Sequence to fold (774 residues):
Amino acid sequence: MAASVAGVGRILQQSRAGHVGIALVGLVTLILIAASTTSFSSRENPGPAQELGGSALLFQEQNEGFFRVVKAQSGPLVGPAINVSESAPETRTYHTYDRALAQRDPGLVANAGGHHHQNFLVFFSGHQGSSWLLDMLGSAPGVYVPGFEPLEVLNATAAQKLRFLDLTFSLPTSEDAYAIWVAEIVDLGRQSGIRLSYTDLPTYADVAATRAAGFKIRPYWGHRTGFRGLDLAEVKAILDDRDVSLVLTTRQNYLKAAASWYRAREVGVNQFTRQQSADFDAGQKVEFDLDRFQEWVDFVVNAERELKDAVSFFQRPTLTVSYEELALDPIGATGHVAKFLGLGGTRVPASARFRKTGSDSLRVMVSNFEELCERYWVTPYRWMLGVESCREAGAAARGARRDEAAAMTKAAALDPEASRLAKAIAFPSATNPKDCFASGWADGAQSCASRLHQHKVEAALRARHRRSPVFFKHVHKAGGTTLCQHASAFVFTETRPLPANSGWGTDCVPQEAFLSRPPQSLLLSSLLRRQPVDADALTRRGAWLGGACFFGHLTPSAQHALPRAFPNLGFVASEGPLPDELALNLDYPLITMLRDPFDRLVSAHKWFLFMKQRFPGIAGSICSSYDAPTNATLSEWLDYYPDNWVTRTLLGSRYLYGKDLPLGEAELRQAKNRLEAFTTVLVLEELDLGLRVLGEVLGWEEREGEGTEMAAGAPQANVARGGRTDSTRELDDLTWQKAASTIRLDLEVYEHARALFARQAERLGLANATDLAR
Fold:
C-alpha cells in the first residue's frame, strides 16, 4: 500500500510540473483500473433507494434567512440529449426538459445513506455570482472542488463526462482505492480535456477529510455547456445513486444579467480582464447595440427557465441563492450554503479572485442609457431599469408624456399573443383610490384603470413565459384544491406537507407560511391576525407569516417581493382576505375562483364541524376569523360566521376580522373593483370551461393525449366539477332566509364574477356569453 501511495505522489508531481514523464500515467492507470473492482457500469451500490414520505431530511434550512431548501416536483426523465451544433450561437438555448417534464411523477427518490460526505452540484447559467460563490465555498476546509466548470468543454464525450461525475461523487475510503481513483482522474482529464485543477489534486489525507464534494455546471443543452451530449436518464441515475444536492443560482434582474453577458461577450470586459482600482467605474460606459442586447435578454430569460426546469426534473434537495442576496452579504450567503451541505460551523473565507468589473447600475454601464430606458419602459422589464435612474436621465419623463396606450397598441400589433391577451383581459370599469395610491399611481398622468389593464396584460405575458408565478386567491370552499392540483400539471407548486402534520397538504400555499406558528390563544388576538408582514420579513423569514391566509398580511412592498420570496414556485395560493392595501402594479397575475354562495356557505359549515371534531380545542375556522360551538347547527353557526364572507375577504383583513363593520353599497362597489383587478376570474360551476380559459391566458396548453380533466386516480376536491350541488335542498325555509340575508352582497359579487368570466371566455372564442347566462 505504501508503494502505491508513493507512486501516486510521483504522478502528482509530474502532473504539476508538466513533465514528459506524464506518459507514465497512462500505464499506471491501465494497471490500476484493471485491478479495480469499481466501474461506471457497476457502481458501488450504497443501498436501496427509498421514497421519502416526509420532509425533515430535505428542509433543514426552511427557516434560515434568505435561502430555502425546496423539493422539486416533476417526473421521470425521457430520452437522450438532442444534437447541439458546435457552431451554434451562444445565445441559442434549447428546451432541454420539455419532453421529460411532459410525464410527471411527484415521487422524490433519495439515497439511503452510506456516504461520509455530501455531494453537490451548483446549477448556473452565467453572470449570477456562481464563480464567486464556489470560490468561497471551495476555499473552506473539507470541501473538494475538482476544477472550475470542469465539464464546460467541447471535446469530452458523454461517457467521459458521466464517468467524471461518478468519480467526483465516489471518493475513495482507503489508500489503495485512492491510488486507483486519482490515477483515473488524471488520465480522464488528459484524454478528454476536462478542466482539472492539477495543482490542487487532493492527497489521500485531503480526501479522507472531505465533507462536501462538487462543482458547477450549466444543466442544459447548449453551446459548450456541461450537459451537452448527455442523456438525462444517466445523469439522474448518478445524482440519485450518489445522493447529490443542488445549489441553484439565479439573478432576478434579467436586464443586468444580460448587460453583464453583453459586456463580456461583445466588449470583452469581465472579472478576468480588469483589476479593482480607485477609478474603477471610469470608462465603464459602453454603447449598447439594443437589438443585439435583446438577444442576450432573451437568452437570459430562457436560461433561467432551463435552470428551474432542471431543478423540477432532477427532484433533488435544492437550495436557491440569488445574485442580489449574494452581493448583499457574500459571506453570510455562502455560509448558508455551507450549512446546507452539512458544513455547519465552517468559516467561509472571502473570495479574492472574483471581483465585479464595474458598477451594478445600468446607468453607469450603458452610455446610451436613455435609449435603453425608452426601449424597455413599456415592457415587463421596466422595474429592472432602475426607475429613478431613468427619470433622472429624462427618458422616463418622455415615456410618461407619450401615449402609453398607443405604445401598447403598437406593441400588440407586432405581437399577436399580446394583442389577444389585451382583448381578452377585461379593462376595469373602476378602481379603488387607496389601491391606486399603494401602486404609486396618484400623479394623474394616466388613469389608474388604464395602468391596471396594462399591468394585467404584461403580468399574464410574464406568466406565460415562466417569468413570474401566478397568485391564486383561494376562496374558502370554492374548488381551490382542485385548481391547485390542475396547476401542478403545468408549473412548479408547493408539495411539502403541513409542518408537523405530514398527512395534510398545503393546497399550494408555500410551506414557509406555516412555520413559527404561535399558540392558538395568540392566533385569536386581533393584533396578531392583522399584523403586517413587510418585504424583509417575507424574504428573510423566522416569524409567523400568517399560515394559509398569509397574503392578507402582506404590505405592498411584500406583495412585490412574493416572486423573490418563493423563486421556485410557479403557482402560489393563499386563502382568507386580500391585503387592506392591494398593489395593482404587481409583476405576476392574480386569479381567483368563486362558487355559488349558497353552496359555498353550506360547505363551509360542514368543514367547520369536521375541523372541530378532528382538532378539538382549535377555533375551527379558516384564518382563525371566528369561533362557534362545536356542534352548532347551520342556523346557530350563522350567528358567529362573518356575513358576506367573499365580499369581506375581497375588501381586506380589516373587514374580515372586523366582522361587525357594516357593509353597504359603497363596500360592494369596492369589492367588485377588487375583483376586476384579477387577470382571470373563474366560477366553479363552469370548471371545465374555466380550465380552458386558464390554458389560453396562462399558456397552460394541454399536452398530447391529455385533456383538462384530472388524471385518472388523482385525488379530487370534494366539489362537483360542473353544475350546482343545490345545497338549498338541505335548508328549511327559516334557515334559507337567514342564509340569504347573510350572503346578500356575496350573491351580487358572484353575479359580477360570472359576468367577468363569461366575457373573457367569449373574447377567447371558447363560449358564447349568452349561453353562460344563468
